[in-house]
Amino acid sequence: MTVLVTGAAGFVGMHVAKVLLDSGEKVVGIDNLNNYYDVGLKHARLQQLEAYDAFSFIKQDISDRDGVFAALKNIPDITKVVHLAAQAGVRYSLDHPFEYTESNITGFLTILEYCRQLDNLEHLVFASSSSVYGGNRELPYSVDQSVDKPVSLYAATKKANELMAHSYAHLYGIPLTGLRFFTVYGPWGRPDMAYWTFTEKMLNGETLPIFNNGDMKRDFTYIDDIVSGVVALLNNPPVGGDDAAPYRIYNIGNHQSEPLLNLVSALEVSLEVKANLKMLPMQSGDVKETFADIDPIRRDVGYEPTTSLQEGIPKFVEWYKSYKKG
To answer: Mind listing the pLDDT tens digit for each residue in 114-127?
Structure first.
């Protein structure tokens, strides 16, 4: 049997695909290799996967319904899908809104419709985001809270994904699990994220922009901890019953909200460089703090993050230096 991983050339997608391959699964990856950030990094991630005989790759934009269906029609044994392809980034959505509706709404609908036509589908796991909590003030963020006040279009598209998924689980009995990721970081990460941009600026002697005058906190979650949760859930599909659809939503984070300046301090130690800071006001679409309640995923699949920020950042820095040399 085969697992389809969308966004396979992405940060989380590559790591999920690699763990699945290491466990003996066959994996089909799909990605459009867009230029939101360095395409060379995406190709380098793919090279890590192409070393496996059980991996095959399809270059395809998921918003192209006909293209996706044609590309996948000759792969009859897909039983599980991990949908990670999306247009990411809160700030980018302020100036490029249509890219978010095309990828995150139309693209997700394509994957839902594709899965609806699979005879042997066991489970579809898809990426949501902690951004859906928007203007919520109650911490830690719980999946029982209302998420009807998004503060960015990106967040709104992710909330829309959750609603779309529930409707398909209800109508067609497709087992669907959504994961609200909390600030994922680590080797092979995204160049638009703070830990990467801060690393570059510090090594180049540039000033770091620190928004909200440093009064920011994030639930920083190391990539290995994220992947362990994704894979555990993939093998444990939800079961509907009575009036309940086979659908569920989880937070997946480190369950520790840390000041942004702790990230800076961890980078200073790992890089052996003193950071120069420029305090700035809050940006549009941003939130002051994130903090994941992970009790449900801990209860259901034994999820337990094990990597602290002080342990994870040195691993990223070691990889970053090696990648830049290579």
So the answer is: 999 998 999 999 99
Q: What is the pLDDT of residue 279?
A: 92
Examine the pLDDT at 89 and tell me if it is beyond 90: no
Contact 185, 222 (CB under 8 A): yes
Q: Which residues are catalytic?
A: 154
Q: Where are the beta strands (DSSP E) in the chain?
A: 2-6, 26-31, 55-59, 78-83, 123-129, 176-181, 184-185, 207-210, 217-218, 221-222, 247-252, 258-259, 276-279
Taking 90 as the threshold, does the pLDDT of residue 283 lie above it? Answer: no
Could you tell me which residues are beta bridge partners of residue 218?
Answer: 258
**What count of residues does the chain have?**
326
The token pair at 122 is 């066991």
What is the residue-wise DSSP string for 119-156?
Answer: TT--EEEEEEEGGGGTT--SSSB-TTS-----SSHHHH
Asked if residues 31 and 41 have their Cβ atoms less than 8 Å apart, the reply is no
pTM over 0.85: yes
Please provide the average confidence, as pLDDT, over all residues in the chain: 95
Instruction: Select from 2.40.110.10, 3.10.28.20, 3.40.50.720, 3.40.50.300 the CATH code of 2-183+220-253+292-305.
Output: 3.40.50.720
Main-chain phi, psi angles of 41, to 5 degrees: -65, -40
